[in-house]
Write a structure and sequence with these properties.
Length: about 230
């Protein structure tokens, strides 16, 4: 499932982020890539231990945890501390698969995070740069994603994906991975669809007893499928 979640950050927050990030100490993105992806990766990235990355990453992690759509779709067990990247001057990241496990070294001892889901939070307005589309391949074909600043795309960590060359301006984004309480994408999707239906029935004033029963089904499925 590919999900576009609007307004994770407001316009004011995006402007504050950019004021800090535009003067940041961008390192070569290949420093954090695995062997295969280092061949394909050309971009700038904040070091994982850069205090600015840690500070802004915590704001992003907090914002997604509080977003009901993100929470319902991802059912997060662990959120890898968000990282930041920047593409300009023709930079790109060719087709690759993200590592299955990332080690969160902000935790002692380091925590192994299984990358069930990947997320990109766009921090540049689409009209401010050319190219830079995130292209995601799944079983339904190829999807091009380029969202307004402050919006996020959530997609399967298992997918092949690339960032097309940025030929004008700069594409700035936060990216991170999520280990879900529900590992199986099909089960996670069913829970999300059920959750969305329950919310919409609640909003339309459906029968309270039927809603209660349906909510029970949701939680009992989650209890059956969740792992910690
Ligand atoms: Ni990737």
């Amino acid at each position: 499932m590919l999900l576009h979640i609007p307004d994770i950050l407001g316009a004011g927050q995006v402007a504050q982020f950019r004021a800090r990030l535009d003067g940041a100490d961008w390192a070569d993105g290949r420093l954090t890539a695995g062997h295969q992806s280092a061949q394909a990766k050309r971009n700038g990235q904040l070091r994982e231990d850069d205090p600015l990355a840690r500070e802004l990453g915590a704001v992003v992690a907090d914002a997604v945890r509080r977003n009901p759509t993100f929470f319902a779709a991802a059912l997060p067990a662990h959120i890898y501390p968000p990282l930041f990247n920047r593409y300009a001057d023709g930079q790109s990241f060719g087709f690759h698969v993200d590592n299955a496990i990332r080690y969160d070294r902000t935790r002692q001892p380091a925590l192994a995070v299984r990358t069930d889901l990947s997320a990109t939070l766009f921090l540049a307005a689409p009209e401010d740069y050319d190219g830079g589309e995130l292209v995601i391949e799944d079983s339904f074909g190829s999807h091009e994603v380029k969202l307004p600043a402050g919006h996020l795309v959530l997609y399967p960590g298992s997918s092949l994906h690339e960032v097309r060359p940025v030929t004008r301006g700069a594409r700035v984004a936060a990216f991170f991975w999520i280990q879900s309480l529900v590992r199986d994408p099909g089960q996670r999707r069913l829970l999300f669809d059920l959750d969305v239906s329950i919310q919409s029935l609640t909003a339309s004033g459906a029968d309270a007893a039927a809603l209660l029963a349906l909510t029970g089904v949701y939680h009992n499925l989650l209890r059956r499928w969740a792992e910690s």
